[in-house]
């Protein structure tokens, strides 16, 4: 694996609490000063950081930096990647390439998939005039003669006869309102006296009656195709008369975890570290709309990787690690050997720039996530998310933006993805956002998309939402 040591940050933490929010930054100041006083901050741009630390940053580049002069990058021997937006568009197009597989299933099995056809009401809702309250159905002006009976009108019972003018009958919430009734009076708003009902408030015509078709008419389009089937959608579908739904099957994904240095349990020791991506990537993929068929550990064995990639039946193969140029970084050579077409080979985003997207076969793709854990998250949201969104039939939402509270230093040319939390109507960047760190993202509500040059307080930045669904299954976003 490639040696990489540019996650400054954990040492010298100044103890701002668990999430490590950035302190407010009222004045623009040089990042090298940040480093000296608070080495816990970002540290994700190798050379940039090194320059800042040794104080060789140009004095003209505090805070928001202009893109650097052409040729500067070449001097550093860096390869520029595809712009972040473009890479996402390529991934989205790749997700459109396959045919969407649809299946009709009972409601419960459709949760977390996407509607393949619009949800159209089979019935009027409500499908009869219904009482909204427990009380009395009355006809005409009061006082009313109370119709005696066996406890009144209940939900789900047979239809009652016509209520004559000047009469009242007890009625339960959800019961059919009898023909002739002009209003329902809540039990707490009326009293009975010698067989007569007296209203204690003014009675309005039609009050507390839900008229047939109030919510929808049979044939109305309730939800568009492409809508994610959430628990609320299941409820609405049932209410509208559905037993089954036609949904798009979730694309299948297999995860291949590379790296001989990874332990699956216990404490890190002797240069070995815990595999942080195995436990993280599969559930995250499920939340993005994928059906994860398995997570396999492949180690640093090129032949094993070759076999795993070519033999996988999944729509999408995700690899972690091995994307860079180290002696055991096998992803590129294996893709070459497999005759894959590289659609994205590096993205101008920090962290995560060595991420890649390849077409293995028509409708089958591979996303190579960098091994550094936050860089892997960046790859997941930059390439896997748009591909899976399309491949699972979900519509692309308009980008969500929020106002930045504190300054975020930018990369001169690349987009940065920075973990943030919401505080009121602002987003606040978190510390511990180096490419090897998960401490920031684990506490984050979203990832701010910081354009080259950085973000200043008040800037409206695109936010990639990380809000987790309340379901422990984590199968829909
Ligand atoms: N000569 C260059 N070296 C590197 C470059 C570069 O452009 N030129 N890019 C650096 C960047 S940026 C990143 S990110 C990494 C990406 O490297 P790989 O995708 O090849 O990943 P590895 O080398 O396999 O691992 C990097 C790092 O991450 C740790 N790792 C890997 N897998 C896991 C895991 N499942 N759980 C926890 N940690 C993991 C691994 O031990 C390494 O420390 O390359 C840089 N180098
Ligand atoms: O900074 Mo690398 O971009 O750690 O992914």
From TrEMBL:
One GO biological process term: Mo-molybdopterin cofactor biosynthetic process
PANTHER family: GEPHYRIN, MOLYBDOPTERIN BIOSYNTHESIS PROTEIN
InterPro entries: MoaB/Mog-like_dom_sf (IPR036425), MoaB/Mog_dom (IPR001453), MoeA-like (IPR038987), MoeA_C_domain_IV (IPR005111), MoeA_C_domain_IV_sf (IPR036688), MoeA_linker/N (IPR005110), MoeA_linker/N_sf (IPR036135)
SMART domains: MoCF_biosynth
Gene3D superfamilies in alphabetical order: MoaB/Mog-like domain (3.40.980.10), MoeA, C-terminal, domain IV (2.40.340.10), Molybdopterin biosynthesis moea protein, domain 2 (3.90.105.10), Molybdopterin biosynthesis moea protein, domain 3 (2.170.190.11)
Region spans: Disordered: 1-80
Pfam family, one: MoeA_C
EC number: 2.10.1.1
SUPFAM superfamilies given in the database record: MoeA C-terminal domain-like, MoeA N-terminal region -like, Molybdenum cofactor biosynthesis proteins
Catalytic activity: adenylyl-molybdopterin + molybdate = Mo-molybdopterin + AMP + H(+)
Enzyme class: transferase
Known role: Catalyzes the insertion of molybdate into adenylated molybdopterin with the concomitant release of AMP.
UniProt organism field: Streptomyces marianii
Protein name per UniProt: Molybdopterin molybdenumtransferase
Gene Ontology molecular function: metal ion binding; molybdopterin molybdotransferase activity
Protein family membership: Belongs to the MoeA family.
UniProt keywords, alphabetically: Magnesium, Metal-binding, Molybdenum, Molybdenum cofactor biosynthesis, Transferase
Pathway(s) of this molecule: Cofactor biosynthesis; molybdopterin biosynthesis
Start and end residues of each MoaB/Mog domain: 254-390
Cellular component GO terms held in the UniProt record: cytosol
Cofactor(s) of this protein: Mg(2+)
């Amino acid at each position: 694996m490639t040696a990489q040591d540019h996650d400054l940050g954990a040492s010298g933490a100044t103890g701002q609490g668990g999430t490590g929010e950035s302190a407010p930054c009222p004045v623009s100041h040089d990042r090298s000063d940040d480093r000296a006083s608070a080495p816990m901050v970002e540290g994700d741009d190798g050379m940039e950081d090194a320059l800042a630390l040794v104080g060789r940053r140009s004095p003209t580049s505090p805070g928001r930096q202009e893109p650097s002069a052409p040729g500067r990058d070449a001097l550093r021997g860096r390869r520029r990647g595809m712009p972040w937006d473009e890479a996402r568009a390529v991934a989205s197009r790749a997700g459109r390439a396959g045919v969407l597989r649809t299946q009709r299933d009972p409601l419960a099995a459709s949760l977390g998939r996407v509607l393949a056809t619009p949800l159209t009401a089979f019935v009027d809702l409500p499908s009869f005039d219904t009482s909204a309250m427990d009380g009395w159905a009355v006809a005409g002006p009061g006082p009313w003669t109370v119709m005696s009976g066996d406890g009144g009108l209940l939900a789900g019972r047979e239809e009652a006869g016509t209520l004559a003018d000047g009469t009242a009958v007890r009625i339960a919430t959800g019961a059919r309102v009898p023909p002739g009734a002009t209003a329902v009076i809540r039990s707490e708003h009326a009293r009975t006296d010698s067989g007569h009902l007296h209203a204690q408030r003014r009675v309005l015509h039609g009050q507390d009656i839900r008229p047939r078709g109030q919510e929808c008419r049979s044939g109305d389009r309730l939800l568009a195709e492409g809508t994610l089937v959430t628990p609320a959608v299941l409820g609405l579908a049932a209410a509208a008369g559905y037993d089954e739904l036609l949904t798009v099957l979730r694309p299948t994904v297999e995860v291949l975890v590379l790296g001989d240095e990874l332990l699956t349990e216990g404490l890190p020791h002797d240069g070995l570290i815990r595999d942080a991506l195995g436990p993280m990537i599969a559930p995250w993929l499920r939340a993005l709309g994928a059906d994860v068929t398995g997570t396999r550990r492949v180690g640093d064995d090129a032949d094993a990787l070759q076999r795993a990639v070519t033999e996988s039946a999944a729509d999408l193969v995700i690899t972690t690690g091995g994307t860079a140029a180290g002696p055991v970084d096998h992803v590129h050579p294996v893709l070459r050997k497999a005759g894959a077409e590289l659609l994205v080979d590096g993205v101008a985003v920090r962290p995560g720039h060595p991420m890649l997207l390849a077409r293995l076969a028509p409708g089958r793709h591979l996303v190579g996530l960098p091994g550094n854990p936050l860089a892997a998250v960046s790859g997941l949201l930059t390439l896997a998310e748009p591909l899976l969104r399309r491949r699972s039939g979900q519509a692309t939402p308009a980008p969500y933006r929020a106002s930045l509270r504190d300054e975020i230093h930018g990369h001169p040319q690349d987009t940065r993805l920075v973990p943030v939390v919401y505080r009121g109507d602002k987003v606040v960047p978190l510390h511990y956002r180096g490419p090897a760190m998960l401490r920031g993202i684990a506490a984050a509500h979203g990832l701010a998309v910081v354009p080259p040059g950085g973000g200043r307080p008040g800037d409206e930045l695109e936010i990639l939402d990380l809000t987790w669904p309340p379901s422990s299954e984590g199968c829909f976003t």
